[in-house]
Amino acid sequence: MLHSGVFIGIDHGSANVLGSMDQCTKCGICNAHCPVAAVTREFPGPKYCGPQAQRFRLAGSVPEWSPMLCSGCGVCTSVCPNNVAISDIITLAKADIVGGGDRISLGQRLLNRPDLIGRLGGKFPTLTNTLLGSSIVRRIVESLFGIHRSAPLPEVHGRKFRKWLASHDQENGPIVSYFSGCAIENYDPDVGIALVRLLNHLGYKVQVPTDRCCSLPMLSSGETGPARARVQALVDALHPSVLTGQKIISTSTSCSLTLRAKYAAYLDMTDDKSGEVASAVVDACEFLLDGHAGRLRKCLNAMPLRVLYHGPCQLRGHKMGTPAVELMQLIPEINLQLSQADCCGIGGTYGYEKNKHDIALAVGASLVEQVRQFEPDIIVCDSETCRWNIEARTSVECVHPVQLLMRAIDGRG
Amino acid sequence: MPQVDHNPRAIVIGGGATGCAVARDLALRGFGVTLVEFGDLGSGTSSRFHGMLQSGARYAVSDTDYAAECMRERLIVADLAAGVVEQTGGLFVSLPDDPPEFSDRFYDGCLSANIPVEELDPDLVMAREPAISRHVLRAFSVPDATVQSWRLVNLLADDVRRRGGEILTRHQVIGMKVRNGRMCGVRVTSAAGEVTLEADVVLNAAGPWSARVAAMVGRTVDLELSKGSIIALSHRMVSHAVNRCRPPTSHDIIVPTGTVGLFGATSEVVGDPDTTNVRGQEIQELLNNAEVLLPEVRNYRVYRAWAGVRPLFKPKGWPSEKPVPRRHSVINHGDDGLVGFFTVCGGSLTTHRSMAEDLGNQVCLSLGFDAKCISAITPLTRGKNGHGWRPADNYRGIEEDRCYQSLVCECEAVTQSEVIDLIENHGIKHIHDLRRRLRIGFGPCQGTFCGSRVAALIARYHPDFASNDDLGRFWVERLKGIVHTAWGQQARQALLSDTVYRETLGVRLKPELATSADYR
Ligand SMILES: Cc1cc2nc3c(=O)[nH]c(=O)nc-3n(C[C@H](O)[C@H](O)[C@H](O)COP(=O)(O)OP(=O)(O)OC[C@H]3O[C@@H](n4cnc5c(N)ncnc54)[C@H](O)[C@@H]3O)c2cc1C
Ligand code: SF4
Ligand code: SF4
After folding, report:
1. Rounded distance, CA B256 to CA B259, Å?
2. Quick one: closest CA in A to B411, which residue?
3. I want to staple B205 with a disulfide (CB 3.0 to 4.6 A). Which of A15, A201, A370, B19 is the partner?
4. End-to-end CA, chain B
5. B259 CA: distance to closest CA in chain A (Å)
6. Which of B285, B306, B327 is the last residue of a domain?
7. Does B408 lie in the same domain as B288?
């Protein structure tokens, strides 16, 4: 049982997250914005699951379910006028519910290891993709692991990004580090390739210190036990680059938010080393916008396309505005529309689970409707699972902002 | 001695823990009972107390007999009404400011009073209770517990009703009927008008108001009215009730109850039993003292403050320099010429049952009615008592039933069905009365969002419900406790809450409400 004395004399880490519950004035603004509560009566909403229920959690242990329905999108935290770390409180509750991972389902365990699956499947990419493309296999996977048959599983690509990078010549220039993460390494190599080329174009030399996973799926589903060692290894791998003063660039707003803030919040990693890594992390678009907009503007060719931009939920957690939008507005003749949806529904690995698939679909319905009306040529989004989900739901190509920028540079409008 | 051949009729004045226990005691002995309560059950001192079902250890040195009585009663209450008692356990900690020689006397006193006491390793205690001072020199554990007083008085009253007794709430006794030196009834006023109720005996259990009641027939009851103020902190802070190990004085206990921690209490002799306002200065005094026991206390939100008046009784000839005893007294006013009239006062909530037993014995003796007290051995609830009260039980119920959409009070996890049951089956039609029974409005927002939901439910069953007035009374009463603790985040809360009531809901706070000291 967590003790309310937990708040005493501690000014960081999970105690800080839980302590923020006392800032709540019960206004209900978070409830009004929660995309999950809006579509299901099974979920009581962030106010209840977060600061309210936490009062009871501190007073005695109770078997709970409701936190498991939170998608972890973080919308609640970003709208709270009192800085309550609502979604983090809920995530810590999830970790308690699943016993730090001891009581987690097999399917979720699999989903929590995208790096492992990617590496295994990557050994025989064609076979894996054919198998996972078969509806019979997906039915079996669904009944065995509870992963919904039409959840948007990405294709595996072997080690395409690594291979490309190894054979890619870079000219000398100021060095930056790129945290590619498991998605680029295994499923979405083109984003990584686009970023490296873009940075080269701006005169940078890019190094990729590690291919490790940030472990967000584990953290957000409560599997904090096994996450600890993985996260420590990642921090150790990134730290040498940080020591040489390099920025660590990320093309995934969810990975970068995890690196920036979540190790302290969920794993109490508040040591100097983790802190230094956290403060070196920068989102790719944020990096590009800050000091490079002028140069970019000169080399972007016209792109007379209908482009829909969907900012992923995690973007709000960065509190950095929408740098991707500002960058894309530099592209001549672009017809850019912004998504009106709070969330595409997938919530990382949330919508993959059979019992949450319907909720995820309902959450994403307004985005699908907007796509139907606007009929974009291309959709842009900074987070990988969102892109896979949007592509699966709308059949419109969905790319990362750096891919669009690179296409504009290449004149492939 | 007169002998009665019929079952005597008794009128009990006061529906606090004492009055309800007296009514039950007599109903169990075969009396026909009518209880008359001015407000709602338990809306006087019995709801403004510190929440403790005391082991008596607090009085082990100063009054060993009383301490032993507390211990006996504490066990009986926890046995009869397990569902309203949380077995928190209690700690007595000796800090550098506390008289060092007191600890040994305390230990011996507990042994003499039959209170199971154990000395603990201070380091262990500090590890188990991270919120308390790091300077604990000695520590003792005793079997203190906490009790939900409203639930307790309602259990007692329900049992009285089941046994044919009558409970009249929102009825005030305004006079007595005396015939030939015998008390034979009371005059009662209520919204329905004035009536006279006849009885063989009239029992004054009006707590701090009992002197006023006795004065209606020219009798004096020598009460010392001692006001005590308490603050409710945003967390339990401790898992045991933690006392300072020193002669019992003011501000030396933190009691975990529900999801909050109660720190108190002050003590101040007052002249008027209705003195339930708290002064800002008292709050600072409480916080200054709390800081010694709970060093970080100022970093917590204080939800509200309240005060109650202890009805202490000074027996005849009691030396004025000695502190007034805690033990109760029964006064048979027949001794000074008014047969059939008794007053019971002093004591505590913990000893409500033994107070009633004592009074019942004397009443039976004076009437020559032969009936033994069976209140300690008669189950208070039908069916199994089950486990004790656990503060997270409401939350547990909601998670089990997944009835999220029907939440009325989110802070205390109260559902529509609980509210509707009380409105439909128990005739409750005031927000306040639902608040007391269900802990509605006890949480951080102090009733901001549940008040109107409750009002809507009452209006569904009582179309003539004056919702604006009732909401106004509810909010004025909540505000009374919030105004002095509105700093930091609680100030922000208070401003939002007040805006919701006055601007969003358009509730009019009538001036007479705002100045009324004690709406119940
Ligand atoms: C600050 C404080 C802390 C305390 N802490 C504890 C504790 O932790 N543990 C403990 O055991 N005890 C505690 N006590 C003591 C305990 O609260 C009281 O001893 C006990 O509640 C008294 O109950 P009662 O029924 O006698 O009085 P009350 O609860 O005051 O009941 C008397 C009732 O009589 C009614 N009444 C008055 N006049 C009339 C009339 N004319 N007609 C009809 N009805 C009338 C009133 O409305 C009232 O409801 C505390 C007391 C205070 C003040
Ligand atoms: S994180 Fe998203 S889904 Fe979870 S409670 Fe907050 S807004 Fe709702
Ligand atoms: S938005 Fe923030 S302050 Fe308002 S109810 Fe939600 S958590 Fe509480």
Report:
1. 7
2. A52
3. B19
4. 42
5. 6
6. B306
7. no
Burial class (CB in 10 A: 0-12, 13-18, 19+), B113: buried
- Residues in chain A where the model's pLDDT stays below 70: 1-12, 413
pLDDT digits (tens, 9 = 90+) for B66-116: 999 999 999 999 999 999 999 999 999 999 999 999 999 999 999 999 999
Cis omega (within 30 of 0) for bond into B265: yes
Q: Got the DSSP string for B225-291?
A: EEEEEEEEESS---SSEEEESSSS-SS-EEEEETTEEEEE---EE-S-TT-----HHHHHHHHHHHH
Distance CA B182, CA B199 (A): 10
Counting residues of chain B whose pLDDT is more than 70, the rounded percentage is: 96
B259 & B399 share domain: no
CB neighbours (10 Å) of residue B170? 18
| Domain of residue B250, residue span | 81-145+226-306
The residue among B306, B339, B369 that closes a domain is: B306
Say which CATH number the domain at B249 has.
3.30.9.10
Number of domains forming the structure of chain B: 2
Determine how many CB atoms are found less than 10 A away from the CB of residue A345: 31
Integer Cα distance of A148 and A157 in angstroms = 22
Kindly state the helix (H) or strand (E) to which residue A107 belongs, with its residue range. Answer: helix A106-111
Residue B77 near residue B84 (C-beta atoms within 8 A): no
- Reference B456, options B440, B467, B441, B445; nearest CA is B467
The CA–CA distances, whole Å, from B231 to A129, B107, B417 equal 64, 29, 31
- Per-residue pLDDT tens digits for B60-75: 999 999 999 999 999 9
Q: Name the residue type at position A235.
A: V
Query: Any CB–CB contact under 8 A between A387 and chain B?
Result: no
What whole-number distance in Å separates Cα of residue A225 and Cα of residue B36? 60
Q: What is the DSSP letter of A138?
A: H
Residues B401, B290, single domain; the answer is no
Q: Do B392 and A57 touch (CB under 8 A)?
A: yes
Helix (H, G, I), strand (E, B) or coil at B364: helix
**Cα(A189)–Cα(A208) distance, integer angstroms:** 13
Residues A383, A343: Cα–Cα separation, whole Å: 12
Residue B270 belongs to a domain: yes
Q: Do B291 and B400 fall into the same domain? A: no
Residue B501 domain flag: yes
Contact between residue A191 and residue A251 where contact means Cβ atoms under 8 Å apart: yes
- For residues B300 and B398, membership in a common domain is answered with no
Tell me if B247 is assigned to some domain: yes
A16 CA distance to ligand 3 centroid (A)? 16
**Contacts with A336 (C-beta within 8 Å, 6 or more apart), sequence order:** A307, A308, A309, A325, A328, A329
Task: Say if residue B284 is in the same domain as residue B398.
Answer: no
d(CA B513, CA B476): 7
| Interface predicted TM-score (ipTM) over 0.90 | no
Other C-beta atoms closer than 10 Å to the C-beta of B426 total 13
Disruptive mutation site among A1, A2, A4, A30 for chain B (greatest number of B CBs within 10 Å): A4
Q: Distance from A9 to chain B by nearest Cα, in Å?
A: 8
pLDDT at A132: 81
Domains along chain A with CATH numbers: 5-101 (1.10.1060.10), 299-410 (3.40.50)
Q: State the distance from the centre of ligand 3 to the C-alpha of B387, rounded, in angstroms.
A: 34
Q: What is the DSSP string of A374-396?
A: H--SEEE-S-HHHHHHHHHHH-S
- List, in sequence order, the alpha helices (H) in A244-383: 253-257, 263-267, 272-280, 284-299, 313-318, 323-328, 357-374
Which chain B residues are Cβ-neighbours of A46 within 8 angstroms?
none
Q: Residue A380: which of A311, A302, A314, A293 has the closest Cα? A: A311
Map tokens 């002799």 to a residue: B269
Tokens for B517, please give them. Answer: 């000291």
Given its phi and psi angles, is residue A43 left (phi above 0), alpha (psi -120 to 50 degrees) or beta?
beta
